[in-house]
Design brief:
heterodimer, A: about 110 residues, mainly beta, 4-stranded antiparallel sheet, 11 strands, about 50% strand, B: about 110 residues, 6-stranded mixed sheet, 5-stranded antiparallel sheet, about 0% helix, globular
Chain lengths: ~110, ~110
């Protein structure tokens, strides 16, 4: 079946603009995670969704970052007033349920000029 | 605080050699996963292994939860094994996975 998909694959934006990143999880997966990976670094947790609710938003770096999930499926990560330090690869993962195996999408590479 | 440490940070092997990668975690976990990040950045599941031992072809993993470590064994390494290996722990009572800093493996032909 289809894996986790993310769009766009690449996004170049100017400092101060807003961006939206999309994640389509594997059908039927109730858990969804967003991570950020800066160049050559490990993965930094951003937010976890169970269904449409987010019991843990503790990883969002600032109030410029927000995320939502609708219909227990697609999720959008929004970054407002982008800064150069937001440049990174944003990765989405889904799992059947909490604490089950995570499956990752290919990521969105965000570059803020 | 809770943390995940991996060793070694870098590893260079000749094709055909065996290796062991280690992941130490600081507290009890609900889940422990190993991933391989290929040169194109895709993260690929290797093992879901909160405890016990599993094998998949040339790869195997063991997690000793009571001693808070996990090992990934790569036997008869191939150039396609090159990349970064991450372990990720879901600590009990939390919702977020903590990733280690990874082991960067290069296998030479």
């Amino acid at each position: 079946g289809a894996g986790v998909s993310q769009s766009p694959s690449n996004k170049v934006t100017e400092k101060g603009k807003d961006v939206e990143l999309r994640c389509d999880p594997i059908s039927g997966h109730t858990a969804l995670y967003w991570y950020r990976q800066s160049l050559g670094q490990g993965l930094e947790f951003l937010i976890y969704f169970q269904g449409n609710s987010a019991p843990d938003k503790s990883g969002l770096p600032s109030d410029r970052f927000s995320a939502e999930r609708t219909g227990g499926s697609v999720s959008t990560l929004t970054i407002q007033r982008t800064q150069q330090e937001d440049s990174a690869v944003y990765l989405c993962a889904s799992s059947l349920g909490f604490a089950d195996t995570q499956y990752f999408g290919p990521g969105t590479r965000l570059t803020v000029l | 605080g809770i943390q995940v440490e991996q060793s070694p940070p870098d590893l260079i092997l000749q094709e055909g050699a065996n290796s062991t990668l280690r992941c130490n975690f600081s507290d009890s976990v609900n889940n422990l996963q190993w991933f391989h990040q290929n040169p194109w950045g895709q993260l690929i599941n290797l093992f879901y292994i909160p405890s016990g031992t599993k094998q998949n072809g040339r790869l195997s993993a063991t997690t000793v939860a009571t001693e808070r470590y996990s090992l990934l064994y790569i036997s008869s390494s191939q150039t396609t094994d090159s990349g970064v290996y991450f372990c990720a722990a879901l600590f009990s009572g939390t919702y977020k996975y903590i990733f280690g800093t990874g082991t960067r493996l290069k296998v030479l032909a």
